[in-house]
Amino acid sequence: MENPLLLFPQLNISASKDKPYYRVMKSAIKGEPHKASKPGAKQKRNRLSLLLQKPEFHEGDHLGKPGNLTKAASVSPEEAVKWGESFDKLLSEKAGLDAFTKFLKTEFSEENIEFWIACEDYKKSKSTHELLPKAKTIFETFIQKDAPKEVNLDFHTKEVTSQNIGQPLPTTFDAAQNTVYRLMEQDSYPRFLRSDPYLNLVKGRNPTRPILRRRSRSFTVNDFQGVRPDFSLW
User: Fold this and answer.
1) What sections of the chain are H helices per DSSP?
2) pLDDT tier at 187, thresholds 50, 70, 90
């Protein structure tokens, strides 16, 4: 049988004209599997849901909770008892200061102890040259209006402190620091002494690792194995 292209030369012309079209279609067809391989929005949501159900994903959920205030292994009951003698005694020991700081974080008021620590560091400056940048940082962080960690000061104390920032002295923040100290001593310190983590330290109990629970979980058959139904409730 003769080649139909020889009998009908126009077919060859048509085919040559259509070659670009076929090349475009071929390229489009090749691109389809690649496009389909990308996960859709639904697939992404499913993967995220599975990730959220993994226990290790929520290990950080309990950080900062009262059960993690400090390690009992590094604090003896006798040492913890001394913390209850006075607020000054608590802050004078590093372990006590750390435990109290973590406690304030659970109450979202850690800016108070951070300000107090910053003032203690400020007063240790060895030269007036160090005072100005430190004073400016403390003022902008804790005292000025809408500061990122603004502490609760009365108008008079804040005004006097603001006026002394231009020519700071080692005593520039004394009034503000004393105000915040009394606030913590009268308010946060008594609650710290009544908290379960502190009482556990006094009793020599080790804080146990909190049980991690999934936020969403479906029941499985294994959950009901060995469980007898209580027909009295029907």
Assistant:
1) 4-7, 9-37, 41-52, 77-83, 87-92, 94-106, 111-123, 128-138, 155-163, 174-183, 189-194, 196-202
2) very high
Model pTM above 0.85: no
Phi and psi at 24, nearest 5°, equal -65, -45
- Residue ranges and CATH numbers for the domains of the chain are 77-203 (1.10.167.10)
Long-range contacts of residues 23-27, Cβ cutoff 8 Å, at least 24 apart:
none
pLDDT tens profile 12-24: 444 444 444 445 4
Alpha helices in 107-209 (DSSP H): 111-123, 128-138, 155-163, 174-183, 189-194, 196-202
Distances, alpha carbon 23 to alpha carbons 14, 69, 109, 117, 154, in Å: 15, 68, 68, 72, 78
Alpha carbon distance 82, 148 (integer Å): 34
